[in-house]
Amino acid sequence: MPSSAADANERAIYSLICSADGVKARDIARQTGIDHTTVNRYLYASPFVRDLCYRDDAYLWYGLIQQTVPHHGLGDFCGWYGTVGEFLAQDRDAWLAQLKRGCTRIGRNLNNARGLFHSFLDTHDTMAALFADLRQLGCPAPDNWELCFELRIRRARYVRIYADVLLLVPPEPAAGQPGTPGQPAPARPGYAFSLEFKMKDAIEQSEVDQAAKYVPYLEVVLGPTFNVVGALVLTSARDLYTHARISRSTAEVPVASGDMLFNVLDEYLGFLS
Fold first, then answer.
1. Which terminus in the chain has less CB density within 10 A, N or C?
2. What is the mean pLDDT for each group of 10 consecutive residues in the chain (273 residues)?
3. In the chain, where are the structural domains located?
4. Nearest to 141 by CA among 172, 183, 99, 185
5. Which of 231, 239, 230, 229 is nearest to 255 (CA)?
6. What does the alpha-carbon distance between residue 113 and residue 111 come to, in Å, rounded to a whole number?
7. Domain 8-63 -> CATH class
8. CA–CA separation, 213 and 10 (whole Å)
9. So what's the pLDDT on residue 158?
10. What are the residue ranges of helices labelled H in the chain?
11. Across the strands, what pairs with 241?
């Protein structure tokens, strides 16, 4: 993987491709203000473009994962993808069967020798309890939020992104605005919560680092309208909500037990205030 997720030019070019329904290099240059030669260099050398975009015979560029709401194409990289409403409406066993089929489709190893399926169900139950907590606490209805289990973006050798759970909360439009391109900035940006699950009750530094590892890459993939938050969830703990520092950094990630996971969302969405 590259030493940094992407520079400003790469982010701008990649975001424009993934926000358009086919765009040519000259139009990328015109719309981003980056000279055509530089644009071409990024189109054929950028890890994100090489792994997650393609060009058709008409020289139009497309993104495999659209920076839209919902994120068309994202489900192709997940064991299970849908809305929170669809998740809550699905029987637990049916959900597990669908997740297994999806994991097979994306090449996720399903070796159950170390209790993988139990961990899947543990994650399911924690997320179901989270949404029950959110409703009880008066959080705006999450039914249309996108929910991904077992995200594996590893189409080629340049960009690799893994997440146990990715929860996408769409931007909140400014009052009286539909949130379409060209309109004022939203009242609240979108948030993507990348959740690393462990069936443990104690914080380990390597797992804190794992929770933060793919945040910069998800920021590129999801685009500028989503802020990405990495968090560690310890499902064997109780009444735990804290922050832990990432190695060799002053940055921190939230760490929560399953019963306190709603605090991670509230820290950014502010529904309790």
1. C
2. 72 97 97 97 95 97 97 98 98 98 96 95 98 91 95 87 97 66 69 98 98 96 96 98 97 98 96 83
3. 8-63, 74-269
4. 172
5. 231
6. 6
7. mainly alpha
8. 20
9. 83
10. 8-19, 25-32, 36-45, 47-52, 84-89, 92-106, 116-136, 205-213, 215-222, 262-269
11. 256
